Amino acid sequence: MYLCTTEEMRELDRYTIETIGIPGTVLMERAGLAVTQAILSRFPLPKRAIVLIGTGNNGGDGWVIARHLCQSGWEVKAWLLGDPSKLPADARCFYDAYRHFGSVSVLSAQGMDGLESDLEDTEVIVDALLGTGAKDGLRFPIDQVVQKVNQCHRAWTIAVDLPTGVNADTGKVMDQAIYADYTVTFAYPKWAFYLYPGADYVGDWDVVEIGTVLPVTPKVQVNRPSLWDKALCHRSPWSHKGRFGHLLVIGGADGMLGAVRMAGAAAYRCGTGKVTLTVPQGNEQSLKGAVMQEMVWSWSGDDYFADESSLSYRLRSEQFSAVVIGPGLGRFPGEEKWLGHLLEQIEHPVILDADAINILADHPHLLDLKIAAPLICTPHPGEMARLLRTTTQDVEQRRNEVAREYAMSTGMVVVLKGRFTIIAFPDGRQVVNPSGHPALAKAGSGDVLTGMIGAWLAQGVSIEEAVLMAVYLHGKAGEHSVTSAEQSVSVDEILAALGPVIQQYSF
Ligand SMILES: NC(=O)C1=CN([C@@H]2O[C@H](COP(=O)(O)OP(=O)(O)OC[C@H]3O[C@@H](n4cnc5c(N)ncnc54)[C@H](OP(=O)(O)O)[C@@H]3O)[C@@H](O)[C@H]2O)[C@H](O)CC1
Ligand SMILES: [K+]
Fold this sequence. Notes:
Layout: E1 2-3, H1 6-20, H2 24-42, E2 48-53, H3 57-71, E3 75-80, H4 89-98, E4 104-106, H5 113-121, E5 124-128, H6 142-151, E6 156-160, E7 182-186, H7 198-201, E8 204-208, E9 220-222, E10 246-250, H8 257-269, E11 274-280, H9 284-290, E12 295-299, H10 311-317, E13 322-325, H11 335-345, E14 350-352, H12 354-362, E15 375-377, H13 381-388, H14 392-397, H15 399-410, E16 413-416, E17 422-424, E18 430-432, H16 445-458, H17 463-480, H18 491-505
Parallel strand pairs: 2-3, 2-5, 3-4, 5-6, 6-7, 7-8, 9-18, 10-11, 10-13, 11-12, 13-14, 14-15, 15-16
Antiparallel strand pairs: 1-9, 16-17, 17-18
Helix pairs in contact: 2-3, 2-4, 3-4, 8-16, 8-18, 12-13, 16-17, 17-18
Bound molecules: ligand LZDS7PUF and potassium ion (K).
Potassium ion binds next to strand 5 and strand 6.
């Protein structure tokens, strides 16, 4: 499923109407009918409804809904917030049609009394005030009405295309916005459904097809199994471990050994043939006692470029197929030279996580080195802010923009973690991930994700499929692991959920 911006929606409308030749009224009738059907499937018996109607085409959908609800025996109050003489042609057509079935109240500048008493009495509120054509800053009287609607706690509120007050592309709220219980959006989801705070205003939502035709492929998709499930096939009976890659995980400073353990455990759960963990000298003994399948080495702060026990030497002599740098890595003198040297040598995909991201944030010129390896970085919003030298709040307000810009300017695949993780590719494409659970908001779950991405990269899955598959299944494992209190879910339970979740999507 693609995700469309308002500009793409406008282009899609224009193309469908002008080039394909489907009249705008046909699209509007289908849009309004789809919303009516959503209302009727929830309330099969007639109710009292208020349809709040704006002066644009979102309002046009509102006239269609008001008419169909009347025809289904509902008691409908249609409130127009604006001047009827200014309605665009398609909306006017359905305004005229509706008036054969019911009356229209026009909100006057004198006061809200009539609308207020109707709102107190209603069971369903339909928000057809503003859709994708909304400009910033709600004007009077829409601002007042939005406030009144949000005070009606007994009525069920359904938003047409998008709740009024929410910006479709940024998810920002224009001072205030309607808190919908449910939103029916047309043709494609919008960014607002995956960004804060807009996502909190849309409630449950569905996308309905209304017959529009896409002239160009949008640059944003929603993550789903069909993008990667071909890479998740069952093993041949002739399998041996050599066929499933060798992942190297570099990290595990004092007090943070758990991070490499979790990444390694996740990598094995996702089918990696061999996993090697490498930690600073002195930590390897404790790690050896704590793992079963993983091989363990150490590296020291000053010999990593030279002798046979150095990371450099081993990177050349062992057959790694992917490398993770960062879980529990810590910060240390010479880190910049250390990371630069590693990046210059590795040819297989590298995932930069945690402190590897922090090192990169302090030494951005590392990316100017001659690096052959494809790079994937997996920042949480705080790490993304450090990379961009901005605030976490700024990142959170422009998640989609910052992820895209950073991927395009650095050539890395960026996995910006969060409630809806965004994966941005250097060519400008983006994928937003719908799966996940607040149970994953816990130390360790990022290490699991990194291990999962590393696992599929090590097995030779393409970068795009590996990243999308790992992010999606990690979210699903979070959902699956909640069998009692969500706050009690442990990383072990998330790891244990990987098997059933992978099974579900394997063919
Ligand atoms: N996408 C499709 O295939 C279809 C979508 N449809 C619906 O059409 C809307 C988009 O319609 P559009 O007319 O472009 O825009 P809106 O109705 O959302 O808004 C325009 C009107 O709202 C006024 N406005 C804009 N911003 C504000 C504000 N901040 N405060 C108050 N009023 C505002 C604007 O007035 P102006 O004076 O600024 O012009 C307009 O009156 C889409 O969301 C779908 O619901 C169709 O059904 C066809 C298929
Ligand atoms: K709306």
